[in-house]
Amino acid sequence: MEMNMGCWSGTRPPLSCLTILLVKLLACVCQGLQGTIPLGFHFTHSIYNATVYENSAARTYVNSPSRMGITLADLSWDIKYKIVSGDDEGFFKAEEVIIADFCFLRIRTKGGNSAILNREIQDNYLLVVKGSVRGEDLEAWTKVNIQVLDMNDLRPLFSPTTYSVTIAESTPLRTSIAQVTATDADIGSNGEFYYYFKNKVDLFSVHPTSGVISLSGRLNCDEKNRYDLEVLAVDRGMKLYGNNGVSSTAKLYVHIERINEHAPTISVVTHIPFPLDKEPTYAVINIDDLDEGANGEIESVSIVAGDPLEQFFLAKEGKWINEYKIKERKPIDWDNFPYGYNLTLQAKDKGSPQKFSAVKLVHIASLKRESVPVKFEKEVYDVSISEFSPPGVVVVIVKLVPEPQGVEYIISPNQDAEYFKINPTTGLIITAHSLKIIEKELYELEVVNKGGDLKAQVIVRLEDANDHTPEFTQPSYSSFVNESVPVGTSVLSVSAFDKDKGENGYITYSIASLNSLPFSINQFTGVISTSEELDFESSPESYRFIVRASDWGSPYRHESEVNVTIYIGNVNDNKPLFEKVACQGVISSDFPIGGHITAISAIDIDELELVKYKIISGNELGIFYLNPDSGVLQLKKSLVNSGIKNTNFGLKITATDGENFADAMFVNISIVHGKVSSKTFSCRETRVAQKLAEKLLKKAKANVKLNLEDGFLDFYSINRQAPHFDKSFPSDVVVREDLPVGARILKIKAYDADSGFNGKVVYTISDGNTDSCFNIDMETGLLKVLMPMDREKTELYLLNITIYDLGNPQKSTWRLLTVTIEDANDNSPVFLQDSYSVNILESLSIGTEMIQVEARDKDLGSSGEVIYSVLTDTQQFAINSSTGVVYVADQLDRESKANYTLKIEARDKAEIGHQQFSVVSLKVFLDDVNDCSPAFIPSSYSVKVLEDLPVGTVIAWLETHDPDLGLGGQVRYSLVNDYNGRFEIDKASGTIRLNKELDYEKQQFYNLTVRAKDKGRPVSLSSVSFVEVEVVDVNENLYTPYFPDFAVIGTVKENSRTGTSVLQVTAQDEDSGRDGEIQYSIRDGSGLGRFSIDEETGVIYTADVLDRETTKSYWLTVYATDRGVVPLYATIEVYIEVEDVNDNAPLTSEPIYYPAVMENSPKDVSVIHIQAQDPDSSTSEKLTYRITSGNPQNFFAINPKTGLITTTSRKLDREQQAEHFLEVTVTDGGISPKQSTVWVVVQVLDENDNKPQFPEKVYQIKLPERDRKKRGEPIYRAFAFDKDEGPNAEISYSIVDGNDDGKFFIDPKTGMVSSRKQFTAGNYDILTIKAVDNGRPQKSSTARLHIEWIKKPVPSPVSLTFSEPFYNFTVMESDRVTEIVGVVSVQPANIPLWFDVVGGKHAREMFYILQTACGQNCSTEGGNFDSSFDAEKGVGTIVIAKPLDAEQRSIYNMTIEVTDGTNVAATQETLGTHSRSNQF
Fold first, then answer.
1. C-alpha span between 1389 and 1374 (Å, rounded)
2. What is the pLDDT of residues 41-51, one digit of tens each?
3. Quick one: which of 42, 52, 59 has its CA closest to 1?
4. Residues 6+ apart with CB under 8 A from 552
5. Are 1061 and 1052 within 8 A, CB to CB?
6. Close Cβ partners of 1273 (under 8 Å, ≥ 6 residues apart)
7. Distance CA 1478, CA 919 (A)
8. Of 146, 721, 757, 1181, which sits 20 to 30 A from 134 (CA to CA)?
9. Selection from 311, 323, 302 nearest residue 280 by Cα
10. Residues 1316, 1356 contacting (CB under 8 angstroms)
11. pTM over the 0.90 mark
12. Beta strand pairing status for 596-599 and 632-635?
């Protein structure tokens, strides 16, 4: 097979080619086949789907929507297909047909005596097909899934064939009563069939597809109680093909029964008659029965229990047919029946069998007022009040219900009664004393009515208030702790308790101190612990502070305080510290024994033990003695004639307090001969004493701060002032008598200048609240209405408002407040009846009076005058505002609304305050008049009907609504036009049936006009509706389109303009009309989107410009589809080959070539092979090559046919030109030749053909003489350069002559010559320096360095200064060695100067300052001392010492130093290196 795949041979394939190769390999592996299959030999799919009709004739080919077969990677392949499994019966045969580059797999049914395909036996075959190449070991497998399509060869069958059902006579229209079932073994449309009645039936209908039988007419058991129906099933396919034979018949027997389904139901509306009624009605009874006819008629309603004296009877005199009223036969003695009567009612209908209603209990209330026993509202009153409550606070109101006239309440005497008072008239209990003065939480009182035996218990619970202060368990606390304890150590624990409960008794602790303390306290446990490290030496020896205990009470917290003292214990935790260290001094060799040399002093901050001193080392000979107590150092042995050679002694001394040792200090003593000054010892001060003093001062200040806190006193716990009223307190206030209970009257403001509970104010009414009408909120001072006021009873109150604080002792203040009660309109009008009702005809004219209502008001003046109005939002009724007469105000319509409930208001004319009113209900019942036409629901109909529906099928159910009652609501239907009897309608039910068969091709729409008419008297009313019937076309598309061939071939030239005609395909269809009209479309194939097709003619056009080099050929799948209701289609495969045109220039394998060749190469050395291809097939073998640019000296030649570039007899020299840029042109051999160019960048490789070169052959320098200290300093840098590159240009330096005694050495990398010994003036040295490169073979050169040593110059008093503090220079990386970079200048310039690069590691290696920059015979290390210098001698010229490479380093920072032998100056220089750009 072809392995090139469009990639260049001889070069590394690009990633895209590797990707394609990998995909093809995976495609072969995914075949899941045994063995190895070469690339290209495989089916287009691993499985195909195909179809064939059952009962197909022999040699019928299966249809597949996709191409089945193998693409020919090699056109010489002779492929054979074979079905290897899945066709056990031998129905199918595989054939192969080759078209262009594809071998089609075609499967057909066999001929001869083979069995016929039957879908009902087997509807699917999965064939495994093998493809092989004759004469080659190539095989491929695929699967073909053949679906056998259905033909309509079976008919529907009923199962079962007999049905029986019993229904009630009252069954509603449209009710489903039964369902018949048939089945057809065919599938799809072939399995569809219709149900219909054999004979015409009016009362029933059958759904054509579901077989559901529905009631479509009114049943009458008296006329007929059984119906025998025959249902037929017709196959739609048979009917379509013209065969109307029916497969089977089913019989349905419908039995009709008259069933009394529903029992009567009773609904009751009780009524309390007016005492003056002559025939009082106690209840209105309505009986309802949902049955029709006699089953729904009520025979009787009777009182079956509860009336033993037969004092009541049921009168049928209501407006409804089954409405009854309960009335009395004779006056009733209600004294004997104080609780009224409980009557039990039951009704029975006239049905068969007769049904009775459920019994209904009706309570007839006594007209006498029921005697209600008097008792307290509650047997036990359980209330809670605040523990802070002062005298006069409201506790509770006790009441008798119903409350007798003149009742008087008293509290029975007991031990708790003295703390409370009760208003004997209203039952209001208030506090008589403050309750917190005694330790009691519960009070029990007994309230009785004076002169009676009724009692009620009152339990008063005190709600805990925050009235206790936390108390500490000790009056003070103290503890001792060592300074060495770690942070977080517990020191002591304080504890307090609070007698209050809950949060009022919950205690937290805190430290109350103005100063920062090294202690913290756990706010919940009271444990005090250290929060900082303690230090006895720098902090107080004891801490005295206050711990505060606070409860969580409200509205304020109670707090108490206790003193806590913590003593700090001193611990030996500091080591001694020397006051002076690092002492050194001198003593004479004749220093006397016992003489005082110096004194050592150390301080121990702890001050617990005396400090002792000791010599640790340095006194091994015992020459010195250190007093352990005083620290005085003395001489112990004589130094004269002691034979001690050492003249220096270093003593290591330490100090200890008994536990800790000080850091060692050193005393260095030098022994000298002769006299020595007395002040010969010097030491370094440690400032230990000063630090100790600072600590002691800090400790003293801390003690002062702690002592200051002892002077603070608590000014907040004393109740100094009494509360006082705000200036806004009024002397009197006016209150309306109708103010509701709980209403706000006035908020009294008061203040107390004290803080906390001493300043908390509470309010109370201590006197004047005689009727208990008022209450004041203890906390806020808000005065409210407690009980209803009655101005007619009391019109003025004088209230004593008293305020208290909560301090100890408690203080109070009082003021009088006058409350005046203002009259209000507090009586409403009262109607004479609780409700009203009236019956009228719906046709009553506007303005007709219906009824009069009346109400009366007990108030006087305008408050007693009544006006009437209708509250209900209605247009139909109105009322005379003065007389209360109700009349008709608008047209009435019972059908819109059968009855109305009007809300009528009677309101007084009060001019001040709110007007009072009352409302009564008026029920208006409308009697029916036949005034409505039947209304269709919806107003018009639109139905769709299949043209092949059987006769008798119901196509529409019409429905109307006539709200009239009786005959006026009964509707009959008729068709105005039935299109020659094609449709009919049921007069009673409105069911429209199909009376004749429809044909879509003859008529598609019918517009039926239907009239509905009621039976009203004396005039009947009617309405009209329209039914739009749309006939739906049934699929009569019998034949599938077909192509004469399964595939065709076409050609088109590449680059043809869009719209070029390629070929035409044509299909045929044996159907007629629209079912035989064909549309063409392209739906699949590799050319999808590249081609278009005329859907009418089948001509295929190009839809895009084609390129043969991109795609040589295309496959299209063309569909031919007819225009049937269910479209059928056929497909054809179209192969289109794209013919070649020379439209591409040759393409090289690389966009740019980068070969390399050695310089000095001989003739005909291969440089590179230019490879190119032409995508055009006709010119790919006729390419020519030529060099068109970049070769003026003919260094290179190219083979015009092969593209091989070689060297010529002209020698390449890298040092002259390192790169050559060649332009190569490739031309094809077409009629209109096309060409392309490519760049070839030839790099010339280096050969070691140059030796190193020194800028000078002889260097002569003069240097000042050198002593020992300057041994090893640089003398002169003699550097060379090599025109070669790489290793060939790497230079090593050595001294080959003049250095026999080794006085000099040279840096092998930089060429810097340095001295090893000292030199004196007058000497002269000559060195021979050799530079060797690293090439093969190596090349070298030498230079001579003459060094003359002169005397040092005289020191100059003038300082040296560079002309600029900072220099910036720029250099190109292509600049050669020895080229000048820049110049630096120094003032003064008329003296000998020496320059050097001293800073910057890289800069010292890459750059240097010439010796000639300093003047004649001058160098960077010296100059002509005796010569005079001109102005130019004060400058230094910087030159390049090594080749530069900007890619490796582009910035150099260096320090340049200049000296005149005494003074030194330096400056900074930044040097930037720029790279050269490659251009071609």
1. 33
2. 999 999 999 99
3. 42
4. 503, 504, 506, 507, 508
5. no
6. 1266, 1314, 1315, 1421
7. 109
8. 146
9. 311
10. no
11. no
12. antiparallel
